[in-house]
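2024-03-11 09:14:02 INFO worker-7 job=invfold-0412 stage=load source=structure_tokens
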């Protein structure tokens, strides 16, 4: 292909179309095909296979996204994350399970410090009125609970 000077950004680039580089052409001229997504039913630009970007990623890349998030946000490998978050350690709920650091230190990723809890029990762990109740159950299950909350009554009126 011949080299040209892009009429938009003025850079010397390989000719694409309309006397523009590929980047400028996509920004200014190219319009993606709009489709009704087969999965969510919204009219959005098509990504592939008749799906919008979000649905395509949810269907075909969800495991890779989960693995990346486990490394990025929790600094642990995905297999460890999956094992810990299979069921809530308190009630056994297995649909939505979140990772909780018992000592609230997100750098401490030892297996003794990580537990899987359902959203309800996770909220209770971070709420002063219900924390003791959940820590009591954790202690009964053999987890070492922190002492950093023992003065919570100081803050109550």
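2024-03-11 09:14:09 INFO worker-7 stage=emit residues=157
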């Amino acid at each position: 292909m011949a080299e040209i000077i892009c009429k938009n950004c003025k850079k010397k680039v390989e000719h694409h179309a309309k006397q523009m580089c590929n980047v400028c052409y996509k920004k200014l001229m190219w319009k993606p095909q709009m489709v009704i997504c087969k999965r969510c039913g919204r009219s959005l630009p098509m990504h592939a296979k008749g799906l919008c970007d979000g649905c395509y990623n949810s269907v075909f890349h969800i495991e890779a996204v989960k693995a990346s998030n486990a490394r990025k946000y929790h600094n642990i490998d995905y297999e460890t994350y999956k094992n810990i978050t299979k069921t809530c350690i308190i009630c056994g709920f297995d649909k939505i399970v979140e990772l909780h650091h018992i000592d609230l230190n997100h750098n401490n990723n030892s297996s003794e410090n990580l537990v899987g809890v359902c959203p309800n029990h996770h909220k209770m762990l971070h709420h002063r009125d219900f924390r003791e109740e959940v820590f009591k159950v954790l202690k009964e299950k053999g987890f070492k609970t922190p002492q950093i909350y023992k003065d919570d009554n100081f803050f109550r009126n």
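2024-03-11 09:14:09 INFO worker-7 stage=report msg="The longest strand covers residues 98-101."
2024-03-11 09:14:10 INFO worker-7 job finished
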